[in-house]
């Protein structure tokens, strides 16, 4: 056996989208970070092992930005054939290219040392190398979904459904119980140019008629989320038992679609079946504040809001596939967006424990609106950025400067409902030919500069000023109607591409007092949020658009000097 020790400022346990975004955010702010993940690939429910597409807030212009938008755009760029193995590699790349981030995969956290209600270290076991990894850090974030650090540290947590009376909610049952939303094994199908056959395994269930599958649509454009179990069992300890039953159901559903009547899938074949269930709910931490159904319905008007959600309160019945009372979920309305406060992202009794993802401090009812992955990614970025603020100010989760945290997040292209990003003092010193690109609001058409010609935008100074960076926010079409990856594979797929609204080619022209020009030329931009290092005195800085990814107009939300 081998033992390896790391000393860091921040340790993240769990490499789903929440954990990945937490680790990247902290590392980019200069924090020495370690990310421990128990699988061989990152992404959690979005990974090639589970293959749930990334969902988020409903409504126009409410798509999540920041690191999660960066990842999705990178995937469209690198992965035009929509291969899940490439999606895995895009996530992996984002981690390994951060110099302040150490990634430890295939490592299961099994021990935590605490002193005076503070975590000192966590230890994980990496089976393939037969190595123990022990990480000491100032702060720890549990982004594992199942909240592995709760039983290891004694952190307070919740499990199951609260009663109506506990938080004065209307969605929960009258009496509290240990039931949850369940887990699903998804499957994917691929269209071919010929008729295909399918022979089910002998142990698969058989569903002869449509009446035996009344719970939801089993058309070919479904992602089969309703093949769900575990809500009446223990969604942690009974995972493998649930998987075995889910696989029998999965094969039985596809056998029904292929061999029991006409379901329009003659030319479709089974591409992939997930042997790792994707989970919706298990342990939820108790934080300084527990977000309730009432908080959601009121819009989450917290002073310390650092992220937002906007999925409906999509409350799945615990019986899942075996529920026979109608549709297997109730879609309770929720405003979009509604704000999530930082007080729900740190433990009420373990001093240096934070969390992000589906395990934050929310009731069962509130969880049903904030458990989807794009929301979880925002929470991760908020937690990672919070650690940077706390390390910088020598503060704690209870004493953190929430205004500073909000400003850091907005500067990193995260939208915070009810808040407006502060425009840099340097930009305000100059005269800008298109003031709309410095209004601090980076979504919705009324805040976007748009030109059908190759017009330029220019900042000019009365005297030379030192320009450190140029900040740009392009239009990545936040209202695009497709996800990060498909749920099935059509013969000819036109979606899942880079938004044509992005500006692909442009120049930044920096002119000094002597008239000398420093020209930055970009020929293959595929991101929404871009920063360029300048590092010189200038009397003018000009943005020159040249070509888009197909759109007839040049669109820009922010062009700012720092």
End-to-end CA span: 51 Å
CATH superfamily of the largest domain: FAD/NAD(P)-binding domain
Second-tier CATH architecture of the largest domain: 3-Layer(bba) Sandwich
Name the helicity range.
Answer: 10-25%
CA gyration radius, whole angstroms:
25 Å
Mean pLDDT: 97
How many individual β-strands? 27
Counting H and I runs of at least 4 residues, what is the number of helices?
10
- Name of the level-1 CATH class of the largest domain: Alpha Beta
Q: What can you tell me about this protein's structure?
A:
The structure is a single chain. This protein has 562 residues and is of the alpha+beta class. It has three domains: 2-157 and 335-411, FAD/NAD(P)-binding domain (3-Layer(bba) Sandwich); 183-279, no CATH class; 425-561, Jelly Rolls (Sandwich). It is 20% helix and 27% strand. The protein is built from ten helices and 27 strands. It has helices at residues 17-28, 67-78, 84-96, 149-153, 239-259, 293-297, 364-370, 373-393, 402-411, 425-429; strands at 2-7, 10-13, 33-36, 101-104, 107-114, 119-126, 131-136, 139-142, 157-158, 183-184, 187-191, 228-229, 268-273, 278-279, 284-285, 305-309, 313-316, 329-332, 338-341, 353-355, 431-432, 449-451, 457-474, 503-511, 517-522, 529-548, 554-561. Strands 21, 22, 23, 24, 25, 26 and 27 form a seven-stranded antiparallel sheet that branches. A five-stranded parallel sheet has the order 4-3-2-8-20, covered by helices on one side. A hairpin with a 4-residue loop joins β5 and β6 (119-126). α2 packs across α3 (84-96).
């Amino acid at each position: 056996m081998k033992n390896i020790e790391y000393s860091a400022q921040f340790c993240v346990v769990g490499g789903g989208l929440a954990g990945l975004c937490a680790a990247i955010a902290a590392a980019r702010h200069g924090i020495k970070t370690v990310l421990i993940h128990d699988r061989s690939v990152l992404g959690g429910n979005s990974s090639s092992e589970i293959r749930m597409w990334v969902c988020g807030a409903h409504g126009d212009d409410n798509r999540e930005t920041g690191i999660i938008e960066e990842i999705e755009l990178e995937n469209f760029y690198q992965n035009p054939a929509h291969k899940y193995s490439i999606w895995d590699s895009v996530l992996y790349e984002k981690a390994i290219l951060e110099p302040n981030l150490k990634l430890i995969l295939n490592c299961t956290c099994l021990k935590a040392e605490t002193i005076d209600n503070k975590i000192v270290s966590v230890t994980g076991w990496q089976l393939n190398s037969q190595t123990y990894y022990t990480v000491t850090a100032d702060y720890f974030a549990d982004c594992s979904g199942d909240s592995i650090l709760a039983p290891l540290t004694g952190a307070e947590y919740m499990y199951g459904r609260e009663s109506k009376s506990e938080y004065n909610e209307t969605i929960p049952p009258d009496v509290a119980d240990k039931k949850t939303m369940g887990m699903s094994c998804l499957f994917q199908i691929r269209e071919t140019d010929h008729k295909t056959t399918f022979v089910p395994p002998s142990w698969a269930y058989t569903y002869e008629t449509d009446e035996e599958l009344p719970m939801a649509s089993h058309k070919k454009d479904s992602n089969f989320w309703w093949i769900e179990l575990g809500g009446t069992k223990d969604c942690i300890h009974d995972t493998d038992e649930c998987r075995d039953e889910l696989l029998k159901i999965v094969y039985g559903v596809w056998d029904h679609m292929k061999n029991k009547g006409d379901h329009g899938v003659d030319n479709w074949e089974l591409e992939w079946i997930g042997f790792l269930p994707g989970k919706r709910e298990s342990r939820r931490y108790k934080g300084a504040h527990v977000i309730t159904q009432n908080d959601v319905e009121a819009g989450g008007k917290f002073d310390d809001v650092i992220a937002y959600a906007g999925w409906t309160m999509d409350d799945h019945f615990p019986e899942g596939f075996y529920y026979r009372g109608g549709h297997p979920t109730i879609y309770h309305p929720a405003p979009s967006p509604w704000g999530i406060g930082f007080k729900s992202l740190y433990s009420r009794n373990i001093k240096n424990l934070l969390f992000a993802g589906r395990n934050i401090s929310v009731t069962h009812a509130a969880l049903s609106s904030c458990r989807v992955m794009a929301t979880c990614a925002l929470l991760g970025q908020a937690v990672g950025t919070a650690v940077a603020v706390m390390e910088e100010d020598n503060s704690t989760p209870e004493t953190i400067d929430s205004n500073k945290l909000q400003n850091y997040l907005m500067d990193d292209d995260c939208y915070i409902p009810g808040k407006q990003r502060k425009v840099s003092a340097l930009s305000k010193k100059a005269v800008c030919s298109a003031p709309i690109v410095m209004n601090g609001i980076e979504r919705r058409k009324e805040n976007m500069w748009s030109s059908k010609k190759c017009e330029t935008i220019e900042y000019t100074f009365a005297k030379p000023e030192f320009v450190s960076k140029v900040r740009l926010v392009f239009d990545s079409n936040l209202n695009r109607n497709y996800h990060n990856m498909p749920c099935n594979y059509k013969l000819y797929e036109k979606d899942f591409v880079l938004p044509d609204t992005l500006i692909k080619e442009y120049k930044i022209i920096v002119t000094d007092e002597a008239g000398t020009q420093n020209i930055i030329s970009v020929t293959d931009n595929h991101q929404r949020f871009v920063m360029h290092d300048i590092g010189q005195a200038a009397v003018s800085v000009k943005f020159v658009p040249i070509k888009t990814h197909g759109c007839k107009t040049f669109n820009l939300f922010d062009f700012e000097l720092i």
